[in-house]
Amino acid sequence: MKKLIKQTRWLMLFSMIILMSITQIEAGTLIKTTTPWIPNSSDTTVTNSDGSVTMTRPDISGYRFLFIRLSQTGRNGALSRDLEVGEKITIKIRAKSSSTKSYIYSKFLDFPLTHFDKVDEYQDFTFKTTVKSNISSYAWLGLFTIKTGDTVTVQSVEIVEEGSIALENIGAQAVTSTDASKGTKYASPNGNGSGESLDDPADIEKAFSTLVAGDVLFLKGGVYDVSNKFLAIRAKGTSSNPIIVESYPGEKAILDGKDKIYIENGERVGDIVGMQLKTDAEYVQIRKIAITHSGGEGVVVYGSHNIIEGNEIYNNKIAGIRLNSIKFDGSSWNSGYNIIQNNVIHDNSDVGLTHGSYRDGGNADGISISRGSYNKVLHNTVYNNSDDGIDTWHSNDTEVAYNIVYGHGIGSGDGGGIKLGGDMTKSTLTGMRAYAHHNISYGNRSMGFNLNAGRGVRIENNTAYNNGQYGFVLGSYEKLGNYTPSLKNNISFENNKGDLDINHEKGQENNSWQMDDSIEFISTDSQSNGFLRPVIDSDMGAISYSNI
Prior knowledge:
mainly beta
C-alpha cells in the first residue's frame, strides 16, 4: 500500500516551515499583474501569441528556471509597492504544463518547493504565503520541470494582499450576536428583579421559566452558579418567532454546575445538567454561552427544531451535548430536526467515576445523538472528551459535516473520532442512514471513523489521520443486509493499524486506499494553516476543492 503523503527529495532539499494554503481569492488589493520574465537563452523559451511564455526543459544538469520577477523596479509589470518581511500575500499563477510535476520555488517567500500536476489547458493555481525577505529592487519566483523536453507555460501572475479567503471551513466558525435591541428578557449572575429590562435582570432560573415564543433572553456576562438550579425550557417557539437564550452582546455568560452529583448509598441518583430543552421545547436557540462543570451533560435536548450554536461546552461529567428522544420503540421518534453547529466542545469526562451512569471515561462523548431523526451536527470543534468525539448511536438520518474531531479516548473511553452506528441486536429501523461528509478526525486513541453497525450509512469526503488504530472501521457486513455503507472520496493516512479494519470493497469509490498515485498535503502540523489541505486541487478528503 502506498503512503498517502510522499515527501519527495525536493521537499526534503528545501524543507521549511509551511505557511501556505491553496485557496481562492475572494477579496484583496491587487499588488501586481505580470507576465514571466525570460533571463534564459531563447532556445529554451518562447513568447506565444497570447502573451504567455513557454519554457522547454533542456538536456542539462541543474535547474533552468522560468522566472517571474517580484520587485518594484523590475520589468514586465513591477510591484505597486515594496513588500515587507512577514506580510501575507496570495499569488495566483495561470499556467499549463506537459510535465507530470512542474515545480515552483522562491527563496524570498516562506513556502517550500512545491508543484502542480500536468494540465493541458490553462488553470489557476493559487498560493497563500508570507514574505520572508524584504522585496523592493530584486526578487523572483521560479518555475521549472525535471524531465528533458517537458514544457511549462505561464500566461499571467497576480499578487494580492491577503483578503477574504473563500474556503470550505472545517470546525467551529464565528457566530454573530443577536442585536441588543432585540432583547425582551434579561438575567444576571446575581439578578433578582423582574427581568423585563437590562437594569432589572432576573435570576436565571426564573427567567427560563417565563420564556414564550419570540422572547430573546440575554444573559449578562459573568459566572452563574447553577449547582442548585434547574434550567429547563418547555416552551414552544415558532419558525418565525423562535425563543433565543444568548450571552449579552460583547459579554460571556458562564453557567457553572460546580460538579454537583447526587449520591445515595454510593449510587448516582441525579445531577444538575447544565441546561435541558424538554420534549415540548421547539424552535429554541441556545447561543454563545459557556457551560461547564455540570454533574451530568452540558446540554440535553429532548425536543425538536432547536439550534445549539456558538457555545463552549467543557469539563462536564458526561457528554457535552446529548440529543435524546423520550419515546424509543425502534420505529419512530418524537424528536428531531435539531441543529448543533459552530460549538467548541472539549474536556468532558467521567474518568474516575464508576457509579450510576458513569463509566470511568466511557460515557462522556463530545456530542451524543442518542436517538431522534434528521438532526444535523455541523461545523463543530470537538476535542479531548473521554469517550468519543461525535456518536450518532441509534439515531436515524443524522448528518455530520464540516467538524474537526481529535484527541478522544481517556480512561475506559472508546476513543473514536466519529461513530455512525446502530445496533446489531435491534431491528433495522434504528441507526439508519447517517451521512458523514467533510470531517477531519485525527489523533484519537482508536479509530477516525467507525461504522459501528450503522445501516445505509454514507461516508464521503472525510480525512482520517494519525489515529491509534484504523482510519475507518467497518466491521462485519453480515447483518447489514441491503444496508451496506457507501465510502467515497475519503482520505486515510498514517493511522497506526492502517486505513481499514476490513476492506469489503463493496460500495467504495475513489478513496485514498484505492488510488495508485499519492496525495501530498501542504502540512501535517495541526497548527499550520495548511493542515491536511491537499497541495493540488482534489475531490478527495474533507477539504475538497470541488466544493469550494
